[in-house]
Amino acid sequence: MKFRYFPIFALILLSTSCGKKKEQSLDYTPTVMASVVESLSQINKDYAGVVQSDRFSNLAFRVPGQLIKLNVVGGQRVKKGELIAELDPRDYILELDVNKYAYEAAKVQLQRYERLMQQEAISKQDLENAGINYERAKANYENSQYKMQDTKLYAPFSGSIERKLVENFQKVQAGEPIVRLVDPSDLYIWFTVSDNSWKLLEDKKEFYVVFDVLPGKKYKAKVKEILDMSPDGSGIPITLWMDDPAFDEVKTQIKPGFSCRVLFSVELNQSEAVSIPLSAIFADPNNSKTSVYVLDTNQSKVTERVVKKGQLIGTDRVTILEGLKPGELVISAGVYDIQNGQAVKVLK
User: Fold this and answer.
1) pLDDT tens for each residue of 299-331
2) CA 291 to mean position of chain CA atoms
3) Of 9, 72, 122, 279, which is most buried, counting CB atoms within 10 Å of its CB?
4) Contacts of residue 169, Cβ cutoff 8 Å, sequence gap at least 6
5) What angle do CA 67, 76, 256 make, to 5 degrees?
6) Fold classified for 60-85+152-181
7) Closest C-alpha to 93, from 145, 155, 30
8) What is the predicted pLDDT for the residue at 278?
């Protein structure tokens, strides 16, 4: 019988001991780190960008056939009107000859019927049929001439071959891209910002671009376009024009696809200009609001305070728009080990 009551006794003893441990934790003084709320009048932002061209084209033939010439390689510069590629023209030469003969025959017949009509030797219907045959033959002949011209592919503007999309001697279809031609003199910078950061750029006039292949050199740029939506959920797309007289795309050899960094600074109102370590903020499980623990230096106790979070600064700091003042102390390490109103020991 004693053995049966032992588990109940053990359970009561364990429950009592746990309650005493919880009471001891309330009296425990944890060691934390505190950071000063800093005044901030300027935010410096740094985003990854990529170079793109505003003028590009995937060049393609209007007719199908087999390539016999592909005169370019990736990265090659070409001039407007320069031959890019050529198709085997033999089938189109044969078609042109046949349609040319039919056109000339229809033309001769129409002229003959016109003379006969003047002599009233044929009916008006016969003349009209001859005219229809002539127009049809003429259209076929002209179409054959266009097809023959379309066996050669020329550059519509001066630029660089970004890449070849087919190989020589390959059979290609009409409209199938052969090469991608870009104009490196018409470059822009593309990057994205987070949904809560794009408002900072609405009145921003000047940006700086640093290319990875030209470290240490900054070039001015201006906003070309800011979308007020995130098409794929990855952020707000922004494009910049290169607007620096010192930037020369030929000398710098900057090409579409190159990576870069976009730098800019944002002036803030003094009432908004405070920053704290990112580690100081936490979500209160009771109300899901963003909060911090503010340290009372006189009593060495912390008070939970709801704040309004702003933009990230780098990777480890954040701006606070409401709730804090410059010079106050917030707990930046150990926030999950303390409670509102608890006494703490600040690590010097």
Assistant:
1) 889 999 999 988 787 678 888 888 998 889 999
2) 34
3) 72
4) 66, 67, 68
5) 110
6) OB fold (Dihydrolipoamide Acetyltransferase, E2P) (2.40.50)
7) 145
8) 93
